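>> received
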Amino acid sequence: MTVKGNRVAVIGAGFVGSSYAFSLLNQGIVEELIIIDLNEDKAKGDVMDLNHGKVFAPDFTSIRYGQYQDCANVDLVVICAGANQKPGETRLDLIEKNLRIFKSIVDEVMASGFSGIFLVATNPVDILTYATWKFSGLPKQRVIGSGTILDTARFRYMLGDYFAVSPNNVHAYIIGEHGDSELPVFSSADIGGVPIHKYISGNPKFKQEDLDDIFISVRDSAYEIIKSKGATYYGIAMGLVRITKAIFRNENSILTVSALLEGEYDQDDVYIGVPAVVNRNGIREVIQLDLNDKEKQEFSESARVLKAILTPQFNKQ
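>> returned
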């Protein structure tokens, strides 16, 4: 991939897309931001609103409304478009309608001559990242899904709250489907370098049952937020900015993104949330955690859930 600069096109100016654009501007990560949406008035309104706040931003960002042909000159296309998850609806319920939307979007982007990296946020993110990879024909490392980056952030926040330590000092992952079959990796979790099971073993006020409840709260967080305000967007927008930063600053950061597995974790031909090294070229490599037997079984089941959807859908393509 030819390195051009730090230019982003965000497709979809809904709750997630506009929150992502706002977060990008506030962190001063990109040189140019193009907002693309079928609702031209909404996208142009966002552009105007964001431009009016530039005087308060840390660095200059060129922000404008664009069309799919403008993707030819960007380095990163972030897809936030698609049908939203409704109360009582799982992420997997969104598949049929969003696959149709994504085929049209990816075809238009690739027709522009785009040669950068795709970052997918729309749910069900693992399925739609796989679809983007298939529809685009790009190498696997240049198609990334937001995966379980937000689930992992929720996990670290809740564990930090429970143990009364900064979430920055909690090292723990949620992996698997970004959805109901995801799993916590307690076997490698630590608090400031101390394994979490060792941390709780000598203190009677901490219990394994509480940790199990924390995971359930993490897994079901989206449902609670959707019930309360209709959609989740701030957390995932900040997660997308974190991935964007890792790409543009060539950080080689380990983030729990949706990546294509080709033998890792004994799985093939599935995009799923795993820790991976992210840099200017996309996903450099997948990090293989040393899972215990229970975690291996749960991860295998999570992959099975996704493959059960992928196989019939892409046999029809």
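>> Residues 119 and 144 are 5 Å apart (CA to CA).
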